[in-house]
Every structure is written in C-alpha cells, then in structure tokens.
C-alpha cells in the first residue's frame, strides 16, 4: 500500500471484493509484501482486519483473510491509531458485550448518508459498521452483497432532519396600573384563507448542489406550479397539496443535454403562523413588483426622490416590512423609511482630495471610501467597497463567462450604453458575500467585482455631514415624518398592493389578505412621577421636562469645589474668566460652594505640552481639572482622558472654546456644566420614589469599534443606594465584535462587595437592564449571562437574591400612535405602555414610550424579560422601568432607555473610543464618564 491512508467506503469495498489482491494505491508490478513493510502506514481495511483477528474471530467474516494468504500484518499496537480506526476497534471490543441494537448500531444507511460521504468525517459510519459487525455469521461474499445493497440505497443528497423548534405556549402579562388610552401601531393584520402551506422535499438525480441550476430545471415545469420562488434549495413550499404523495419530473440540463430526474415528496402541512419566513419572501417579491429598489435591508422608490441640491443629496422614500406572529396573531409591521443618497460619485471625491492634498490624496480617499456602501444607478444595486485598485483602470480587459474578453469601458458601452469619461481612473474592489444558509467556506463565483468610480454614488451620511446643522435641518424636512404622515404612507402602501394586479395575484396564490387599517390597541398611561430635590418636591409635568426647576433649587447632594484647576491657552483667557465667574454664580443656586480655581495657561496648543502640565499639576488634593480646548480634536480629548482616568486619576471636564464664546448662551451652558461637575465629584442631583426595599439596579451595554480594529468594551453600572442615585461602574475588555459580556461575573461580584461596604447588607432584589442584544441572542443571553450571575452569588455563602434580567431594545421599527378625537394620529404622551397585541407571542415583553418629542414620531423602547426571578406584577415591573428613565443626570427629563443602560453606554463608549484601558478603581463610585 502507498504511504497515504487507505480509502473510505467504496475503496474498502473494492479491496474486499478483490480479496485484498488489488487494494487502492497498489501498483500491479509491485508485490504485496512491499506494501506491508514496517515503515508503511496501514489503510483502514488492513487495520480493521487485524482488529478482527485480534478479537478472536474464528467464523468466516467479511474482513477475514483467505486461508492461502501469506501476508504478514504488523501489530496494530506498533502504530498510533487514527480516530476512525479507534472508533472501529471500540465497536469491535463491545461486540460480544452489548447487543447490536439501538440508535448507535442499528441506524439505517439512509439516515447516515451525510456522515458516510462527508469528506471531513473521521469516524466510522454507523451505516457501514453495523452490517460489518452484525453479519459475521454469514460468509464474506454474502456480507459484500449486503454492503453493496445498502450502499446502493444510500441517498447522498438527503440531509439530516432539522430539529423543529418547539412551539412555546402564549405568554400573556398585562398590567393594570395607569389610565386607559386609545392607541394604534404600525401593524396591519394579515388574514390567511388557506389552511396552511404544504412542504415537499425535492431530490435531483444525479445530485445537484447549485441552487441556480436547480431553479432552472424546475422552471421547465412552471406550468405545473403557481410559484417557483418558494424553493429554498431543499424544500418546495406550495399553497395547495398535489394529488400524488410523490411527483416525478424530468428536465434537461442545457450545458450537456443530460436528463435530470426530479422527485417531489410530500413532507407535511404547516399552519400559517409557522410560515412567517415564507411570507416575508413573498413580500420581497411584491416589492419588486411595485418597482421598489433594495438598498441595504429595506426597499425604496428610486422614481420619486426628494432632491436637496444645495447639499448634493437626495432622499429616496421607502418602506420597512416584516411579518411575524405576535400575541394578536399574524401581523405585518409596516413603516415609512428614507434613504439618503449623495449625488456625488467616488470619482468626485477622488478629484476633490487630489486638489486639496496632492501628495497624500490616496490615503485620504482610502479613509473616505473603503468600508462605505456605494450605489450603481445603472442597475440600482449597492456594493461595499473593500479596496481600491490604483494600478488598474477601465481600459483593463476581463473575461466573460462565454470566454470572450473585453475592457470595462467596452462592457459599459455595450451593456448599459454608458460612456466612461476618464479612462485612467482606478477601479474599486468589492467582495461578494455568499447568501445566507451557505456552508462555511462557500465562495461566490466570481468572488470579487470591479467597479468604476465615476459610476458609483456614495450612500449614507458621514460624520462631517452630520455635524453640519444646516444640512441636517434641511434633511429633516424630508426624513422627520409625523404620525399622521406615517399613517398616510401605510395606507398608500396597502392600497398600492391591493390595486396592483400582479401583487394582488401573488398574495391570492397563498391566500393572504391585508387589512385596510392598522391595528387598534388599548394602552395605558402610567402615573406621572414626583421629582425630589434638596429643598423641594414637584411633579415632572406632562412633557417630563424639569430643566428650569433643577437650576433653581438645591441638589439632593452637592459637593463643594475647594481645590480645582483650569487649563487653557492664552487666546482663550477672556472666555475662561467669564466661565469661572458665571460658574460661581450658578453654583450658589444649586447649593454648591465653588471657590476660585488655580489656572494653568499653556504656552502652545501641542498635546505634549498639555499632558505634561496635567501630570505636574494633579495631586491627591486636586478634586477636578477643567480643560478648555481650542478645537474639537479627538486625539487631544483622548490624551486628556487617558491621563485623568488612568495615569493620574481625577474627575475631568473638557470644554470646547466656542461653547463658552457666546455671552447670551453662556448661562445655560454653565448650568449644564455645573450639574455634570457635581455628578463627577460624587454628588446627586434629583431622585424619584422607589418603593422596593434592598434593591440593586444594574445596567449593561457593549461598545463595538466601527472598524473592528479596537477591542469591544462591556460597560457595567450598578446602583449603590435605595434611591438609585449613586452608582458603581466597571468595564471589561473583550474581543472585537463580541457582544455578550464574558466578565459579568467579576463585575457583579465587585459591585456586591461595594454595595455591602456602603449599606452593610447585600441586596435582596437585583434588576438587570441589558442593552445591545438582538433577537437572535436572547436565548444565549438567558443561558450565558444569567448563569454567570447566579454563579457569582455562591462566593457570598448562602446568598440567593431574587434576580430579574430585562433585555432593552431601542433600535426597533415599532411605532405607537395616540388616536385623537378627530381621528388623526399623534405622538402618545410619556409613560404610555403597550403590553399586548403587538408584543411577542411567546415572551414576557412590553413597550414603553418614555420621552417627549417635539418633531417627528416618537420611538418606543422594547423591554423583554428573559429571566423573572423577582416575580413582580407586570404593572410594577413597568413602573420600575419607567422610573429608571427619570434618573439620567445628563438630561433634566426622561430618556429613551433606563438610566443605568445609558450610564453603561457612556462608560463603554468613553473607554472604547478614548481610553482603551480600564479606568482607575478610585473613580468607580462616581459618574466620571458623563
């Protein structure tokens, strides 16, 4: 035998059939004895034969040697055993001890076909070993016939059955607190007149693994089926049951003219509520029928753009659609969406960069273009730019699938009637992503595409564009849609679908009908909260805004500024004088005693000069440093935070010079800065009543670097007192892109120790608000992070608190409207709760509108209780969640998510963007990251 390992399956059978006289790899002119020299590695056939011989096999068996054979097989123990042979040997050793029945030894060849033919499988297939061991009483030739018969029955195309997801019971958790509200949401009921969808497995003979070719072969029989876009490569979904359980078809492969047999086998009927994935595919088809263009995830209408010529932008209107089974049945989520596109091309950006910086324009273009999504208007498709081919040009030739070669310039002129103006421009490289569901390692053909810069239009907004107030204001006129306008857009979409013959026919095939109006919901308005300050208590008001009251009353806990310093450059000295004077006046109204700071005037604007001055000035007596930066430079800000959070830990406040430059706005700016400073020194601003005793509230969020070059940061914040106004913070650094926090157990253990040191007892109830987790990670969250929590309790002895974990989702497309008396839709007031109809059918969840917006449509926040250990009533859990939105000290009003989540986000963002390391422990009991 050759030095390579023995063959599998067919090779072994061939060797057996030839009585081991002509094994795979054996040359005819070589004697067999040479193949079994001590230096050769053994194939599986010979090793298995030796194993049978060592087990004392006396009866004729499949792998027994002929009597006249004089082959000398070396000892098995002299060579290390491979995994496949080790499995065979183990089976042989147990042959005489356990019966050959059960799942491992008696499975049919058909159920084991995948593992038998899988190229990376290293274990013996049950389909092969079962007959080898069970039929030893028969002769070798009979066993060979049995093996051949079974292998002939093996269907290599059959896949292992997917484990069906267990249908969980409906969860109904409805609260009673609050006053009733008449609401609506952006959901439309979907009616299905069919009993369900019929599933058929499709098998091709000879086997085919190209889905496009499968579709072409099925298209030859399109007269027999109402739709063919419901075939996913394995299962064919039909709206009705075929007369026969099995249908046999024959198609012709055009490449070689060979006949392909197609067999459709009935599997089962699935009810409509289990077919949401199929219905979403149908609605994507309807979008194409309505001539919508897919850009990213959603679909837009390129025929009716809103142009913003002064900023070289245009806005495409579009829709977001998604069918899911909710507590109120099968609902279609429908929302208006907008896509901002730039009318400038990548070629325009290249030219502009060249004129601004000729010596280093390539680096500038690379930063602005690579990683962005571009749109090619000749086919309305989007591509992600992965690289720039500076050495290539449109005059470069490429080969078509037909074998013909042509230049890019010729291709666009012939195919799209487009004349490329600059033949010397470089090309853009885009890597094609494989479709979802493809096996690992699958590559597209072709894997890379080359694009011409002058035909690629930039999409989306850059940070520079977002920072321009006038641009965002002009865009808001097109993108900021009121509830009434959203309602009109939804009705328009439903009417377009029902009035379009092709779209209506597509829905009728599957028995689907759309309701003409959105769903009606009976919601509730939670009671308004009372704001408690140092010398006054007042109600938050209908808009939940107490910005005036917070600056006119004493704070809950004010920290005096006794020893603090200001760092600035010489030209900002007049502004710094006005700032200090105003800060001392405003601090008195809040109960803060503010003394005159020490000043450090910097000789230049260099970062090194500032860093050195900070290191020389900060000592254990300094409470706070204030740095006035001349410009908004990220590297300067990061350098300050690294010194003040890691090297010489002290609370720091960074101010941009132009922020305090306008005298008419100085007072309001200084008031906000004074509140921030008091928080960073450990003070408390306001509070709300918290009825639960011995409670700890935790917030968790994760920061991911957009470029994936930096580590992901998990931010952890926990309350330290009864009123949830003092917080303990900690971070854990993770791998780039990692969402679930690995170090949660360490963070919570440290927080519990700090809580005990502050209160001399451990909390009995812990409520965790986890932000940044999508639907696909909810089960992993419950199994991974929640278990970390319970493991950390064991380090405190017999300590078993009640723990509830709530997932917070703010990036959702659900919109909730208040139905006015005139029938118009408006934004609901803060404190609106929806906990039925549009909630998940199998989860404990609710929506809360916690903030007031003056323009556009308010967005609710979705809360999913993944682990309810405390067992609060639904109304109590909702009220506690709403109370937490009052306690974010960076804004005197309610915020969209609970305060601990927002604190965790600010902490993770600061560490991920600027510091990159864990902050000093002495800052952990202050809100230094605001």
Structure notes:
This protein is of the alpha+beta class and 930 residues long. It has a 20-stranded mixed beta sheet that branches. It has a four-stranded antiparallel beta sheet with strand order 3-2-5-4. A four-stranded parallel beta sheet has the order 23-22-24-25, sandwiched between helices. Strand 24 (624-629), helix 20 (634-647) and strand 25 form a beta-alpha-beta unit. The relative contact order is 0.08. It comes from Biomphalaria glabrata (Bloodfluke planorb). This is Piwi-like protein 1. One of its GO terms (molecular function) is RNA binding. It is found in: Cytoplasm.
Q: Which characteristics define this entry?
A:
20-stranded mixed sheet, about 950 residues, alpha+beta, RNA-binding
Please give a quick description of this structure.
This is Piwi-like protein 1. With 930 residues, the chain is an alpha+beta fold.
Strand content: 15-25%
Main sheet record = 20 strands, mixed
The residue ranges in which pLDDT falls below 50 over 5 or more consecutive positions are 1-9, 19-44, 55-81, 94-141, 154-163
| Helical stretch tally | 25
Cα-atom Rg, whole angstroms? Answer: 35 Å
Report the structural category: alpha+beta
Helix content: 25-40%
Shape field: globular
Q: How would you state the average pLDDT, rounded?
A: 80
What is the secondary structure topology, with strand pairs?
Blueprint: H1 10-17, H2 32-35, H3 44-54, H4 83-93, H5 113-117, H6 126-134, H7 140-153, E1 179-192, E2 197-205, H8 211-219, E3 235-238, E4 246-252, E5 259-270, H9 276-289, E6 293-295, E7 298-300, E8 306-308, E9 313-326, E10 329-345, H10 346-356, H11 361-369, E11 373-376, E12 381-384, E13 387-389, E14 397-399, E15 405-407, H12 408-415, E16 427-431, E17 448-451, E18 456-459, H13 463-466, H14 469-479, H15 483-499, H16 501-509, E19 512-525, E20 530-532, E21 537-539, H17 547-550, E22 564-569, H18 573-589, E23 598-602, H19 607-617, E24 624-629, H20 634-647, E25 652-656, H21 663-680, E26 695-703, E27 712-719, E28 727-734, H22 744-759, E29 765-771, H23 778-793, E30 802-809, E31 816-819, E32 825-826, E33 832-834, E34 844-849, E35 861-868, H24 874-884, H25 899-915
Parallel strand pairs: 22-23, 22-24, 24-25, 26-29, 29-30
Antiparallel strand pairs: 1-10, 1-19, 1-31, 2-3, 2-5, 4-5, 6-7, 7-9, 8-9, 9-10, 10-18, 11-12, 11-18, 13-16, 14-15, 16-17, 19-33, 20-21, 26-27, 27-28, 30-35, 31-32, 33-34, 34-35
Helix pairs in contact: 3-4, 6-7, 9-16, 10-11, 18-21, 19-20, 22-23
């Amino acid at each position: 035998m050759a030095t390579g390992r023995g063959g599998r399956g067919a090779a072994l059978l061939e060797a057996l059939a030839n009585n081991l006289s002509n094994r795979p790899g054996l040359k005819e002119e070589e004697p067999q004895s040479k193949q079994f020299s001590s230096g050769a590695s053994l194939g599986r056939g010979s090793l298995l034969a030796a194993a049978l011989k060592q087990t004392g096999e006396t009866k004729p068996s499949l792998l027994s040697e002929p009597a006249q054979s004089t082959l000398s097989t070396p000892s098995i123990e002299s060579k290390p055993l491979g995994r496949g042979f080790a499995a065979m040997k183990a089976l042989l050793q147990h042959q005489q001890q356990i019966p050959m029945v059960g799942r491992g030894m008696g499975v049919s060849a058909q159920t084991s076909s995948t593992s038998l033919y899988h190229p990376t499988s290293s274990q013996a297939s049950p389909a092969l070993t079962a007959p080898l061991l069970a039929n030893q009483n028969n002769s070798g030739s009979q066993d060979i016939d049995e093996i051949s018969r079974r292998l002939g029955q093996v269907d290599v195309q059959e896949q292992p059955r997917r484990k069906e997801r267990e249908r969980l019971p409906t969860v109904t958790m409805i609260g009673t607190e609050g006053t009733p509200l008449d609401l609506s949401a952006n959901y439309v009921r979907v009616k299905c007149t069919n009993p369900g969808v019929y599933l058929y497995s499709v098998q091709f003979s000879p086997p085919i693994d190209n889905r496009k070719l499968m579709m072409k072969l099925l298209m030859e029989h399109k007269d027999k089926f109402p739709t063919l876009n419901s075939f996913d490569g394995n299962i064919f979904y039909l709206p009705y049951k075929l007369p026969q359980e099995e249908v046999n078809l024959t198609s012709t492969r055009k490449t070689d003219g060979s006949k392909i047999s197609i067999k459709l086998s009935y599997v089962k009927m699935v009810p409509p509520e289990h077919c949401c994935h199929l219905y979403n595919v149908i609605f994507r088809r309807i979008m194409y029928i309505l001539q919508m263009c897919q850009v990213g995830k959603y679909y837009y209408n390129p025929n009716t753009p809103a142009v913003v010529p002064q900023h070289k932008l245009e806005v495409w209107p579009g829709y977001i659609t998604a069918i899911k089974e909710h507590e109120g049945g099968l609902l279609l989520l429908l929302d208006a969406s907008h896509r901002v596109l730039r009318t400038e091309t990548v070629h325009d950006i290249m030219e502009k960069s060249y004129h601004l910086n000729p010596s280093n324009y390539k680096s500038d273009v690379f930063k602005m273009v690579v990683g962005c999504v571009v749109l090619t208007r000749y086919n309305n498709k989007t591509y992600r730019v992965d690289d720039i081919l500076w050495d290539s040009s449109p005059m470069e030739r490429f080969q078509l699938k037909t074998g013909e070669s042509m230049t890019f310039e010729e291709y666009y002129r012939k195919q799209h009637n487009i004349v490329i103006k600059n033949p010397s421009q470089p090309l853009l490289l885009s890597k094609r992503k494989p479709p979802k569901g493809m096996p690992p390692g699958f590559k597209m053909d072709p894997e890379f595409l080359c694009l011409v810069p002058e035909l690629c239009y930039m999409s989306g907004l850059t940070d520079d564009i977002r920072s321009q107030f006038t641009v965002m204001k002009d865009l808001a006129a097109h993108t900021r849609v009121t509830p009434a306008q959203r309602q009109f857009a939804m009705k328009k979409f439903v009417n377009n679908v029902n009035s379009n013959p092709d779209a209506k026919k597509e829905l009728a095939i599957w028995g689907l009908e759309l309701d003409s109006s959105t769903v009606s919901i009976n919601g509730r308005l939670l009671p308004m909260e009372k704001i408690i300050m140092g010398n006054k208590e007042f109600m938050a008001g209908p808009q939940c805004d107490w910005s005036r009251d917070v600056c006119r009353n004493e704070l809950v806990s004010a920290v005096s500024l006794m020893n603090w310093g200001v760092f600035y450059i010489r030209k900002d000295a007049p502004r710094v004088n006005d700032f200090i004077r105003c800060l001392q006046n405003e601090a008195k109204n809040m109960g803060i005693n503010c003394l005159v700071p020490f000043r450090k005037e910097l000789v230049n604007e260099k970062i090194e000069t500032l860093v050195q001055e900070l290191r020389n000035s900060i000592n254990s007596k300094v409470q706070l440093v204030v740095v006035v930066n001349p410009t908004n430079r990220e590297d300067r800000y990061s350098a300050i935070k690294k010194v003040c959070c890691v090297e010489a830990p002290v609370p720091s406040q960074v101010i941009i010079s132009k922020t305090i430059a306008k005298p008419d706005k100085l007072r309001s700016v200084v008031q906000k800065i004074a509140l921030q400073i008091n928080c960073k020194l450990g003070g408390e601003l306001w509070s709300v009543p918290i009825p639960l005793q011995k409670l700890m509230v935790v917030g968790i969020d994760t920061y991911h670097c957009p470029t994936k070059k930096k580590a992901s940061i998990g931010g952890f914040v926990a309350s330290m007192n009864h009123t949830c106004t003092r917080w303990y913070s900690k971070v854990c650094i993770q791998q780039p892109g990692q969402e679930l926090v690995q170090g949660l157990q360490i963070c919570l253990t440290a927080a519990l120790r700090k809580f005990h040191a502050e209160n001399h007892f451990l909390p009995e109830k812990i409520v965790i608000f986890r932000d940044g987790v999508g639907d696909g990670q909810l089960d992993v969250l419950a199994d991974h992070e929640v278990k970390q929590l319970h493991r950390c309790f064991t380090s405190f002895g017999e300590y078993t608190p009640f723990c509830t974990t709530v997932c917070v989702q703010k990036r959702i497309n659900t919109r909730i409207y208040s139905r006015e008396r005139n029938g118009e839709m408006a934004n609901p007031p803060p404190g609106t709760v929806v906990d039925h109809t549009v909630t998940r059918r199998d989860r404990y969840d609710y929506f809360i509108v916690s903030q007031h917006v003056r323009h556009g449509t308010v967005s609710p926040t979705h809360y999913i209780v993944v682990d309810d250990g405390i067992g609060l009533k639904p109304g109590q859990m909702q009220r506690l969640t709403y109370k937490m939105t009052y306690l974010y000290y960076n804004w005197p009003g309610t915020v969209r998510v609970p305060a601990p989540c927002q604190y965790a986000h600010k902490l993770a963002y600061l560490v991920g963007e600027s510091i990159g390391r864990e902050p000093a422990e002495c800052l952990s009991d202050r809100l230094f990251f605001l």
